[in-house]
Amino acid sequence: MNKLVVALLLAALFAGPARGQAARPALAPVKVTHPAWVLRGNVYEVNVRQYTPEGTLNAFARHLDRLKAMGVETLWFMPLSPISQVGRKGSLGSYYAVADYAKINPEFGTLADWNRLVAAIHARGMRVLIDWVPNHTGADHPWLARHPDFFVKDPAGQPAVAFDWADVRQLDYRNPVMQDSMIAAMRYWVTQTNIDGFRVDVAWNVPETFWRKCIPQLRQGKDLFMLAEGDSAYLPRSGFDAVYPWHMFHEMEKVARGQRPATVLDSIYQEQRRRYLPATLQLYFTSNHDENSWNKADFGTFPGAVHAPFAVFSQTMAGSLPLIYSGQEEPTLRALQFFDKDPIGFGQYQRAAFYQTLLDLRQRSPALAADAGFRKVRVGDERAVYAYVREKAGHKVLVLLNLSAQAQTVAVPDKTLLGSPRNVFTGQAEKITSQPRLLAPWAYAVYEYAK
Q1: Are the C-beta atoms of residues 176 and 147 closer than 8 Å to each other?
Q2: Distance (Å, rounded) from C-alpha 445 to C-alpha 23?
Q3: Rounded CA gap, 325 and 45, in Å?
């Protein structure tokens, strides 16, 4: 089935009222209180298959102390489930073609291995998210035989392929029994393995009514964190803590290529403020598994020195929940294979100190909390230099970013920012005056002011 046919099927499935009918009133937002640990937290995405030569949970566990020392607070594991054989892509298949929601991929280890890993993570004061795939199952999931009514049908009456992904089948959210089965499967991982939340794949293609039903049930007895892959405004309204800022990411790419001025970031920031509830968190990143494997991020989209100022931006921007993808601290300068074995090959950790500086500052300073204040500061040509202050409870951080390939003259006219704050990357006090100075191409500086 081609992508257009499936798109039309899905549009019909999740469509609003037909022409001539009254539109349904918007539902009141679900009240969300974020877990306290996430406001100054961060997320590190774990690609288990590629993380070590063994590609197992036990092998990954050897990296926990290193990641803790780097400042990682929350570990997001790409899907742990067995992978379907039917339509399998490559030699190992896609993580996102789930063969069974209630089992661990035997290539990674056992449920006992997973429980030991979760306990080890918690013992280090870190948190655990698992990747969940509710939009579709793999093409040989047992529900296809046991519950064929759980799936959308194509014109031939067969389970529909989701989009153009031949290894998966589209679930039908008009079926309330399927909905309850999905919630039960998610609750299993909360109650039996003590995880701290979910990153939800293709959350934007699952109806709002389901999330309003599902998320409160998942949160019964535990303060879970819910991250939606998607940027639809209904996602935080239906109970998600955080969404993907796709518009901002794509404009960051254009600024990095010299195609847009830095001022476009202001436009997107204002758009986000209008689009989302005030407390919505956004997963800022320069790479993730999709962007790395398919679009050469960050080694191709933010190459070389270009990476650093955008990474600083993602770690310090208002409302941000910063993400680091497996291998960015190395750095891994290639696209990891998605369907085949391709170990990252750790050993250098050349960016680890850079990330540690940012992660430590975020955890130490309330000024970088997701709900801290934000104001732009004009210090030079705003088409090239992006500067801002984050502030909360008497704590203040100044960020200067040259988002261009040319040196820029900058001066700080704001008298409240003059003085000798600590440059967090040098560890030394640095005098800030109103006198002009040069900021090198793609240079960055972050200053922490004493309370």
Answers
A1: no
A2: 49
A3: 5
Q: List pLDDT tens digits, range 219-231.
A: 999 999 999 999 9
Q: What pLDDT is recorded for position 201? A: 98
The CATH number of the structural domain formed by 3-10+31-364 is 3.20.20.80
Residues forming a β-bridge with 401: 386, 444
Alpha carbon distance 414, 189 (integer Å): 51
Tens-place pLDDT, residues 135-168? 999 999 999 999 999 999 999 999 999 999 999 9
State how far the Cα of 413 lies from the Cα of 420, in Å rounded to an integer.
15
Query: Is residue 263 classed exposed, middle or buried when 0-12, 13-18 and 19+ CB atoms within 10 A define those classes?
Result: middle
- Half-sphere exposure (CA, 13 Å, Cβ side) for 177? 7
- DSSP-derived secondary structure letter, 28: P
- Tell me: pLDDT of 16 over 70: no
The strand ranges marked E within 244-340 are 281-282, 323-325
Q: Using one digit for the tens of pLDDT, what is the confidence trace for 441-451?
A: 999 999 999 98
Which CA distances in Å does 375 have to 142, 389, 437, 450? 53, 5, 22, 18
Instruction: Find, among 410, 399, 404, 326, the residue nearest to 357 by Cα.
Output: 399
Domain boundaries, the chain: 3-10+31-364, 376-449
Return left, alpha or beta for 441; rule: phi > 0 is left, psi -120 to 50 is alpha, else beta: beta
Is residue 43 within 8 A of residue 282, CB to CB? The reply is no
* SS3 state of residue 197: strand
Buried b (16+ CB within 10 A) or exposed e, 278-289: ebbbbbbbbbbb
Q: Which of 289, 10, 14 is nearest to 161 (CA)?
A: 10
- The pLDDT assigned to 26 comes to 76
Q: 216 near 146, Cβ under 8 Å?
A: no
Q: How far is CA 143 from CA 100, 153, 239, in A?
A: 9, 14, 27
Q: What angle do CA 341, 103, 48 make, to 5 degrees?
A: 30
Distance CA 232, CA 163 (A): 18
Pairing of strands 408-410, 395-402: unpaired
pLDDT (0 to 100) of residue 23 = 44
CATH topology match: 3-10+31-364 vs 376-449: no
Q: What is the pLDDT of residue 25?
A: 63
> What fold characterizes domain 376-449?
Immunoglobulin-like (2.60.40)
Q: Give yes or no for a contact between 148 and 142, defined as CB atoms under 8 angstroms apart.
A: no
